[in-house]
């Protein structure tokens, strides 16, 4: 049963890693603007379409 | 797509001015040019994301010449190394996804720009460019030419790097981490099955929980201890004191519990509590980053001005470098940055923002002109007589009375309640301790701590933040942007509303012009319009724009006599327009703004310029008058008194001819009479009154442009809904009070467990989140309900 020590330590380490990732993301300013990226990700397809169009012309 | 609206900017097209290009119709050449630029560069996708997203580019010739000055550019840049430069520009027009798209594709319009990134909430664009290939001035010109003119003011020049405080987000993150893990590890013991392995590993689980709750207790909750300590020292019993007390007692008791093996302690409730309370704080902290409520004259003033050197060459100099004796060139629509003397023959200055006077003032050569006015008309030259910091307007701003709001401490509704709550709580704790001590010492201590734990006013502390945070968002969606949540509470207490006149209850956009006098036929109107065309006087311009289209005729012997009027000969008719004495009309009795007309020395009549009142003004005052004392406080003359008296309900008080300082003193006197005053204003002339009042609301035609320091900015289109906002704020406070009652009920239930000594960790772990969630749910539903029913 002492495997529980191992399992719980692993789970805590995973959680700590997630927390670390979160703190780093905040520090990098990823949470400063929570709107623009959501719009930006929709643009990629559109741009390709335009490029195709200009190539065909 | 409708043919009536411009394909680029969406404005109505005047049929005669319609420009058709590429099978699309545009309202003006500017819009067409932007479309051309985009289509040439394969960027017409811009129009696919939103319909008519654009803005008409403004004429900016010479406006950004100061960007050639390297010293200024260096101060504006965020970063500079070799050829890589980074600049962040504030672009007020950013409003939709098309804007983001085009601004992030700037590199396709201009080589030298390597990339650009938009921050939509802040309305800012960060541009990385190669300084060898493109200059900042070229970038600004490019942006302006596609309708995205950046706003660069003296504020940018001071360029203090604002550090963003992300403390709260860290705290919430850590609190959530602790809460989740502690909850998970506490779970096995909730069921308390007498099982071999559970007993075996109890110690391990408990100490792990203890360790995990430390960051939450010590770091995340630290704000509460600091606030409680500060308030205790100041002798104020605010809500943070019972919270801090509850947290500390909870932690100590739980630690004692696990040391002596009494039980698992209340660490799960503790971490949950900290997390929920921080969440409430985060929710309340809605800020409108793109608006600034603390603006002073710096964001109104230009960075640089055009100086004329002795050899007549023009250079751009930073506005702070202007000294007495300099000669400056002021273009149309430019701000006069310093006090000075007019050198050019004449000019018209629009002081409406500073003094509240609606009609531009005409000055002639040699007159003293004050900083803050906006030049309208041709380019003029002036001589500086005082530096920026010594000018009238800047001195007014630095005046102490204009900046004393900060030290006023407002007592929130939560603070008021906790003044009674805290002593009551301590009383109950000690009474029950005193009762149990005679029965069982151990239980007595248990009960004492349990009371403090369960009564920890988590739900109470959450009521206000969640309600206010929610209402703040609702109001924001309806275009009233408040500085912070406390303003809503203050709004609910208002009993006197003071309105400014010019720009607040009147709109600057269109003045109604009425003709009074003998009949004027089409031919005569064409004469008048032709004559007006030659004049740059603001009244002439406005009258010219308002007259219907006519066939324009050449004017002979045109003459403009400053301060009097204009005259000229058309087809042999001699036409005179201007002031009564100039035209030979009977003197004006009513204090109105008039332009008189005479043809061949026959007096015909006059054009009366009316201030246009905002839509729904009478209705608004009608709705407000039963509950509020209403006053009009104006910097303008009494010309409008009669019209206003007719328009507004009885009992509305009018005070005219008020200087900025007088307005402030007036508000102060009302407050001394024990009134809670709301000031609604717009210009710099109201700045003092806005700061002095309990709630200062600034009306703005365009919320992105400058407005004076205030507690809230209301979009001018929503002006008529002011009574709705007032009602909503009152209902908000009602909601908070209701949820206080609800959370006190929870406390009573919890206390009944605690006093009888039956509070188990499991009960606490159920009651606390349950009360929190129901309270949050209740206030959200209630505030949304109130927001809806009254909006009809």
Automatic annotation (TrEMBL), chain A:
Q: Does the keyword Transmembrane helix apply?
A: yes
Q: Which spans are transmembrane here?
A: 6-23
Q: Which InterPro entries does this one have?
A: Cyt_oxidase_maturation_cbb3
Q: Give the domain of life.
A: Bacteria
Query: Which Pfam families does UniProt cross-reference here?
Result: FixS
List the keywords (alphabetical): Membrane, Transmembrane, Transmembrane helix
Instruction: Tell me the protein's name.
Output: Cbb3-type cytochrome oxidase assembly protein CcoS
Which lineage ranks, top first, belong to the organism behind this chain? Bacteria, Pseudomonadati, Bacteroidota, Flavobacteriia, Flavobacteriales
Automatic annotation (TrEMBL), chain B:
Give the top-rank taxon of the lineage listed in the UniProt record for this protein: Bacteria
Q: Which GO terms describe its molecular function?
A: ATP binding; ATP hydrolysis activity; copper ion binding; P-type divalent copper transporter activity
Q: What is its main location?
A: membrane
UniProt membrane topology term: Multi-pass membrane protein
Residues that span the membrane, as ranges: 168-187, 207-227, 234-252, 258-279, 420-439, 445-472, 736-756, 762-787
What InterPro entries would the database entry show?
ATPase-cat-bd (IPR021993), ATPase_P-typ_cyto_dom_N (IPR023299), ATPase_P-typ_P_site (IPR018303), ATPase_P-typ_TM_dom_sf (IPR023298), ATPase_P-typ_transduc_dom_A_sf (IPR008250), ATPase_P-type_domA (IPR059000), HAD-like_sf (IPR036412), HAD_sf (IPR023214)
Compartments reported by the entry: Cell membrane
Q: Name one Pfam family in it.
A: Hydrolase
Q: Which GO terms describe its cellular component?
A: plasma membrane
Keyword Transcription among UniProt keywords: no
Q: Which UniProt keywords apply?
A: Cell membrane, Hydrolase, Ion transport, Magnesium, Membrane, Metal-binding, Phosphoprotein, Translocase, Transmembrane, Transmembrane helix, Transport
What family does this chain come from, according to its entry?
Belongs to the cation transport ATPase (P-type) (TC 3.A.3) family. Type IB subfamily.
This chain's protein is named: HAD family hydrolase
Organism, as annotated: Flavobacterium cerinum
């Amino acid at each position: 049963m002492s495997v529980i020590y191992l399992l719980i330590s692993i789970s805590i380490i995973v959680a700590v890693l997630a927390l670390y990732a979160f703190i780093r993301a905040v520090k990098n300013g990823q949470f400063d603007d929570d709107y623009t990226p959501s719009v930006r990700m929709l643009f990629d397809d559109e741009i390709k379409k335009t490029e195709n169009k200009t190539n065909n012309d | 797509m409708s043919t009536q609206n411009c394909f680029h900017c969406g404005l109505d097209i005047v049929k005669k001015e319609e420009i058709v290009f590429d099978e699309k119709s545009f309202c003006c050449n500017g819009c067409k040019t932007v479309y051309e630029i985009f289509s040439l560069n394969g960027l017409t996708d811009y129009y696919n994301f939103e319909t008519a997203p654009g803005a008409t580019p403004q004429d900016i010739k010479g406006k950004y010449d100061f960007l050639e000055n390297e010293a200024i550019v260096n101060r504006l840049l965020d970063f500079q190394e070799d050829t890589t430069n980074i600049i962040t520009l504030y672009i007020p027009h950013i409003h939709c996804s098309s804007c983001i798209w085009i601004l992030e594709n700037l590199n396709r319009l201009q080589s030298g720009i390597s990339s650009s990134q938009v921050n939509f909430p802040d309305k800012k664009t960060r541009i990385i460019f190669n300084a060898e290939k493109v200059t900042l001035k070229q970038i600004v010109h490019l942006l302006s030419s596609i309708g995205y003119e950046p706003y660069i003011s003296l504020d940018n020049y001071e360029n203090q790097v604002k550090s963003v405080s992300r403390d709260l987000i860290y705290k919430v993150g850590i609190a959530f981490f602790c809460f989740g893990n502690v909850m998970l590890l506490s779970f096995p013991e909730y069921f308390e099955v007498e099982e071999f392995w559970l007993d075996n590993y109890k110690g391990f689980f408990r100490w792990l929980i203890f360790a995990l709750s430390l960051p939450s207790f010590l770091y995340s909750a630290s704000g509460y201890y600091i606030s409680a300590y500060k308030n205790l020292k100041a002798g104020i019993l605010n809500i943070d004191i019972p919270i801090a007390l509850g947290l500390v007692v909870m932690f100590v008791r739980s630690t004692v519990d696990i040391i002596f093996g009494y039980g698992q302690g209340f660490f799960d409730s503790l971490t949950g509590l900290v997390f929920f309370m921080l969440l409430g704080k985060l929710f309340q902290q809605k800020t409108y980053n793109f608006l600034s409520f603390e603006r002073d004259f710096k964001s109104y003033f230009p960075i640089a001005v055009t100086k004329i050197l002795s050899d007549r060459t023009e250079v751009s100099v930073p506005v702070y470098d202007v000294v007495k004796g300099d000669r400056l060139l002021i273009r149309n629509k430019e701000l006069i940055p310093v006090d000075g003397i007019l050198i050019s023959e004449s000019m018209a200055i629009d002081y409406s923002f500073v003094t509240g006077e609606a009609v531009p003032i005409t000055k002639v050569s040699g007159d003293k002109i004050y900083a803050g006015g906006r030049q309208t008309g041709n380019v003029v030259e002036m001589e500086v007589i005082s530096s920026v910091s010594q000018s009238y307007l800047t001195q007014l701003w630095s005046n102490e009375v204009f900046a004393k709001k900060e030290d006023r401490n407002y007592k929130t509704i939560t603070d008021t309640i906790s003044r009674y709550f805290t002593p009551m709580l301590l009383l109950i704790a000690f009474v029950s301790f005193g009762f149990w001590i005679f029965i069982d010492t151990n239980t007595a201590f248990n009960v004492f701590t349990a009371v403090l734990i369960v009564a920890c006013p988590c739900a109470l502390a959450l009521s206000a933040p969640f309600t206010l945070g929610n209402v703040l968002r609702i109001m924001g969606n309806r275009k009233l942007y408040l500085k912070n949540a406390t303003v809503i509470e203050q709004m609910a207490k208002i009993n006197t509303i003071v309105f400014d006149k010019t720009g607040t209850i009147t709109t600057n956009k269109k003045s109604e012009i009425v003709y009074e006098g003998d009949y004027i036929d089409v031919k005569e109107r064409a004469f008048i319009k032709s004559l007006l065309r030659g004049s740059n006087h603001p009244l002439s311009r406005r009258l010219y724009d308002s007259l219907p289209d006519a066939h324009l005729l050449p004017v002979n012997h045109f003459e403009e006599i400053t301060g009097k009027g204009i005259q000229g000969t058309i087809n042999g008719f001699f036409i005179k327009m201007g002031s009564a004495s100039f035209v030979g009309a009977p003197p004006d009795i009513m204090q109105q703004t008039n332009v008189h007309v005479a043809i061949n020395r026959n007096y015909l009549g006059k054009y009366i310029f009316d201030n246009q009142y905002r839509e729904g003004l009478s209705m608004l005052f009608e709705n407000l008058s039963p509950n509020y004392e209403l006053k009009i406080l104006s910097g303008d003359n009494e010309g409008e008194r009669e019209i206003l008296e007719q328009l507004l309900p009885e009992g509305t008080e009018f005070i005219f001819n008020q200087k900025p300082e007088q307005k402030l003193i007036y508000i102060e006197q009302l407050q001394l009479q024990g009134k809670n005053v709301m000031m609604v204003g717009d210009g710099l002339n109201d700045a003092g009154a806005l700061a002095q009042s309990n709630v200062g609301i600034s009306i703005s035609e365009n919320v992105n442009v400058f407005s004076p320091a205030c507690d809230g900015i209301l979009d001018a289109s929503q002006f008529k809904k002011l009574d709705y906002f007032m009602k909503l704020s009152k209902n908000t406070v009602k909601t908070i009070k209701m949820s206080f009652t609800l959370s006190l009920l929870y406390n009573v239930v919890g206390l009944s467990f605690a006093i009888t000594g039956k509070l188990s960790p499991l009960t606490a772990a159920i009651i606390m989140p349950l009360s929190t969630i129901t309270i949050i749910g209740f206030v959200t539903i209630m505030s949304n309900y109130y927001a809806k029913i009254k909006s009809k």
